[in-house]
Amino acid sequence: MSGILVKYVLTAARRDKLFLSLLAIMIVGSFVSLFLSSSAVVEKEQFSVVYLAGSLRLLGLLGLVLFVVFFIRRSFDARDVEYLLTRPVTRNSFVLSHAAAFSILSAFVSISLCAGLGFIAYNIGNPQGVIYWSTGVICEYLLIVNVALFFSMVLSSPVAACLSTLGFYILGRLMGQLLFVAKNPSDGIPGYQILTTIFQAISALFPRLDLMTQTSWLLYGVDGIKDYIFILVQTALFLALVLIATLVDLRRRQF
């Protein structure tokens, strides 16, 4: 891994005003969330925490995905990748350096987001649940930015890479509902058994993102530590799998 490459990516994020853009859009999202929560008849404070947590998490994720995808595709289009690989930088070092830089960015954004939310929700919700939820956001961001790195390396179109990353994220968030439907079959729908088999096969390839950041943690805490350990192990396994796939793709690529 090259420290110079890591610093280069972080400098590019600062030059592209990633942090200022995320800060601005999160402020707007916060005001919108607080406005929507004001329509609640009861438990307005709890609703404000829920709306705020969901909107900030999604906005931060979208900003990171867009930056990762367009940065990598811009590097390919400007032939920066080819130039770097002619220097004393191996392909493995190239991938790992970018993955480390994007992971640092995601950790910084998620920690900043969670610190702001924790300041608001600490006295309203469950303090321990806020900490667990914040750790889940960090794991989710780490995984998704590296998935975005993979798709931006594999797909030549930045739009296709963004949509693929968001599709991966949405499927991961919906996996719990899909598995619930698959385990409760309905005989009235033709071809339902085939769909059930397909969903069960897909579930083996996608992480359970719906378990990572449960909004109920913010208000009621975590019921058991087993599910939380599963989240950490799942993040490590899928993160390693995505990095290996990215390394294999770049090593097989001909420039």
UniProtKB/TrEMBL annotation:
Q: Which domain of life is it from?
A: Bacteria
**Which regions span the lipid bilayer?**
18-37, 49-72, 93-121, 141-171, 229-250
Query: What does the UniProt keyword field contain?
Result: Membrane, Transmembrane, Transmembrane helix
Keyword Transmembrane, does the record have it?
yes
Record-given protein name: ABC transporter permease
Q: Please give the organism.
A: Micavibrio aeruginosavorus
